[in-house]
Structure formats: C-alpha cells, structure tokens
Amino acid sequence: MSGNNSPGPFSPPFHFKGVKFFPAADLRAVEQVESFQVRDDDVFVSAYVKSGTTWVQQIVSLLSTEGDLSEVNKIPIVVRVPWLETMDMSGSGKPYPKLLEEAPSPRLMKTHLPYHMLPQQAREGKGKIIYCARNVKDVVVSWHKMREGFAHIPSGTFDENFQEFINPEQAVFGLWWDVVQEYWRHKDDGNMLFVKFEDLKRDLRGNVVKIANFLSKTLSDQRIDEVTANCTFSAMKNNEATNLTRAEAFKGLATKEFEFIRKGKVGDWMNSLSPEQSKILDDIHREKMAGVDLTFEFE
Ligand code: A3P
Predict the structure, then answer these.
(1) For the whole model, what pTM was predicted?
(2) Is 112 an annotated catalytic residue?
(3) pLDDT, tens digit, for every residue of 95-133?
(4) Which of 28, 96, 132, 245 could pair with 52 as two cysteines, CB 3.0-4.6 Å apart?
(5) Domain boundaries, the chain
(6) What is the CATH number of domain 14-288?
(7) Distance from C-alpha of 48 to C-alpha of 173, rounded to nearest angstrom
(8) Up-side HSE of residue 136: CA atoms within 13 Å toward CB?
(9) Please, which residues bridge with residue 192 across strands?
(10) Which among 22, 53, 54 is the best mutation to test ligand 1's pocket, defined by most ligand atoms within 8 Å of the CB?
C-alpha cells in the first residue's frame, strides 16, 4: 500500500438518524449514500462489522478477475472495494459516494449501513447486494478485539464494549439483531443474496459458486478452485492486501499483537465471553429472534 493510501484523519463518533457511527465512517459520506446513483452492474458487499465483510469482498474481487490474485493484489482491499460511508483514503478529501461517481464500472463497494440507509436505488432493486451475517457471539468478541487492536477506533474495556453492543442507542452501526433482521426481511429481493459466515467456513467453495451464480459469473471449475484457494483463512492472513495490519500503511495504527485477519473461527467467543455475558446474549437472542426463521451456528 502506498503512503498516500494511509487511513485517517478520522472524524469523531457521531449519530445519524438514531444510529451511532464510528471511524472510519464519516457523516459527510453517510449523508450522501441515500441519493447515490446506482448502476446496474454495481455490487454492494454489506455486513455488520466483523461478520466476514473482507472475506466476501475478496471473493467478489477474485470473481471479477476470474481468480487472478496478482491482478487483485495490485490494490489493497480497502481501495479496491471501497467503504461507501467513508472518506477517500487517497487524500482527495472527497466522500466515497462522490468519488465513486467517476469510477469505472463495474464498481465493487462495501458497507456496514443498516438496510434502510442503503442507496435508495439499491433498495428499489438496482445493482446487487450480498449480505453476510455471522453469529452474534463471535461478532461481539471480534469487534472488541479490533477496537483494542486499532488505535483510531474508540474502545473501552471488554465489558464496556459489550454493554455498548447490547444497548440500542449506543450500538455502533445499529443494534445487531435489528440490523440483521432487517436485511433478512429482504433476503428474497431480486437483487439480494444473504450468506452466513458459518456457511462459508463449512463450505467455502459451495458459497463461492453461489456468489458467482448470483453475480451471473460463469467460471470454469478450475477458476472456481483458484478463487476458493485464494479466499481461505490462511491465504487471506498471509496476504497483506487483505490482512491490512501487515500492510505498511497500517503499521502505526495497530498494536503489534493485533492482526486484522485474526482467528477466523466459529465459536471463538468461548475464549472471551463470561458465562454471564453469554447468557445475556442468549436471552436477548431468544427474545429478539422469536418467530424469525433465521438461525445461526454458535460453535
Ligand atoms: P475474527 O476476529 O473472529 O478472527 P470483517 O471483515 O467483517 O471485519 O470480519 C472480520 C472477521 O472475519 C475476523 O474474525 C477475520 O479473521 C474473519 N475472516 C476474514 N477472512 C476470513 C477467511 N478467509 N476465513 C475465515 N475468517 C475470515
């Protein structure tokens, strides 16, 4: 990553339409998303934080180059699949929704916005949205680890971050249960594909094929194998274009111990959540997900 792609400076936390946002999200960008002009071949990778966003970004990127990693690696993932509700990292001072107006097609973008804050035209069916959901217990732990690991993201103790996560007014990017359920209600929309982190773990190749079909990409079996091989946990951990903390531009931002592509496991929450915290999540989950036909594997 070149020096002028260094992240920051970042805006302080802010609220927009009742939802709390953190860096690198920026109000100047968030405000422009609603009216963002969507193209038919746009692809939005959407996920709650720490739910496999980067994983799906990499799958979609590699599908766009038919598995050619050298092509994909020329540009770090944060620039190749930019985060819609942030400011340009190359120093133009423009919000991504503005900058992307001039970007060539096909445009790949990432977002952590709740469904109702997506570009209006995407909600009306234009472009394609891939939503990736992950079990809430692994999300809460992974989110804390990242806040602890990155200097630019405000963080409290694990318990403080946990309390914030379950508080509807304080939860960053919205309350997990509300956000995931809102996307789930749109899972059958013609331009939406809903995938789960745990399914990608169990059957990466099958999900690569599913995503390729959704994007109307016809790749040979060998190309699909190449995409899959380049999207495994170890491949992405050893790749500094995806494991950002190994890239030069991020060196000063993260603690020595923290790796952006960290553990990539289902059930790692067992190493961090206390029995009381686990029960609190179970109770909220039971209540919030009652009557919703969306289930998650927790281990
Ligand atoms: P952990 O912190 O539990 O390891 P996001 O991209 O939405 O921020 O999600 C990050 C999480 O996805 C991290 O989880 C990271 O390790 C995991 N991840 C990223 N790429 C992965 C891959 N190829 N296989 C498994 N997990 C992956």
Answers:
(1) 0.96
(2) yes
(3) 999 999 999 999 999 999 999 999 999 999 999 999 999
(4) 132
(5) 14-288
(6) 3.40.50.300
(7) 7
(8) 25
(9) 129
(10) 54
